[in-house]
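dude i think i finally got it to work??
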Amino acid sequence: MIGEAALLKILGAGVAFGAKAYKDIAGLKAEDFSEVAKSLGEAFIGGKPVSGDMTAFISGVQRSIADTLDQRTMAEAGRNPEDVRRDRENALVQFNETLPKMALDRALFARAEFDAYAVATAMTDQLARLNPLFRPPASGAPRSIAYALACEIFFRTFELAEQKKEFCETLLATIHREVLKRLGRIEDNTSRTLDELADIKAQLKALALAKGVPEEPLRKVLARFGEEHVPLGDIPDRLARKADELVFLRQELARLRNDRPEFAALRARALKLIDDGEFDEARAELRKGRELAKAIREEHAREEASFLRHEARIDRLNLDYAAAIAAYRQATALDPDNLPAWGELGDLWIILGNLTDALKAFEGAEAACIRSGDERNLSVSHDRIGDVRVAKGDLAGALESYTASLAIRQTLADADRTNSGWQRDLSVSHKKIGDVRVAKGDLAGALESYIASLAIRQTLADADRTNSGWQRDLSVSHKKIGDVRVAKGDLAGALES
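look at this
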């Protein structure tokens, strides 16, 4: 036997499914069926049924499901009937425990195009998310007892609910009354609320006509009042105030502007959706406009930042460093991803001897590279930060920055050994790490770094003997190695370098 809580949930879903043809009960959502089901328990199961027809319908549902399950049991070929019955009873116990925990989703009905079998299958799949016993079969495999049982229960319920439209209409009215009672709109001992609700709907028509607005958005507001438990007596005044807000909003959206065509089109679509009562869709259109406006604003900010950077470079030529710094600061505020502006600002601070602000500027460049995913320039930013830390005497911090740069450059160089620029970058990282190790007194570590740098530079210099820059790099490496060997007392090795 299907448990009471599970049966209430099934019938709530069945009524919601059968109610697709009834549009006059505004604001009644799937969750209302679920919440009200318990209040209608007496109507569903024994107790005080609303009508004899309802009692007969409930009994019919139970009989139909029971008969179908027995037929399914007998139809299971190749298995012991007792085993099948045991599996069925276990599945029914699990069904009774799991279904009350499942939230009803009325949108599922629409997605399945209100086809009883498709909805039943979709609800069984939803049930399986809570209890794997009801999982659908693998492709080509037979259905399990549990899966077949759940599908059959849902299908028979929806099929009966669809066929009994008169019953569904009666039950919908009952549910509507219970919803109103639950929201405090009517007293338990009176039935005047439906008449009062009809009066409010008539007032809504008159209000829409008087304000010159469509009825649909006001109906949507009325439904929201129900969801927010607004007392019935407060609704007329509050609805009138919302009508005034609607008038103002429609006027604002319809007002002519010296506007971009795409903005005008978005506002027009939003206004049409509002008039249709589609508030969420209207808000989505306005969000598109806001995102487009934001993108345009950001593009303008990037252009302005570019002009400011060029102004700063003129100020530097004119030795007006204060004006240049002000322009760079404005540029990086407008466009935090303007990497050249951050780098040039850091360089200017170094010229002025302000290492603290230089470090902040290079850290700004570092953050910009991280946001953009620019690995190569991120390695350069690490180097610049390391250079400032060396100048400040922070050798441990400098070594950390140079090591971070080395890791990036090693990855890039390994990815493309034909990229001479990345190979040279890697040699520079080894050289900078060697310099810090010398300063820290780690001559063995410094020699290792310089030798690694030399190996790369030798390869580059051999590949293009006309490249004076690479030839000079090679000579610097030999000198660095020679200096370390002198410091270690290896004069023969130093002479060789």
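The longest helix spans residues 279-317.
im so relieved honestly
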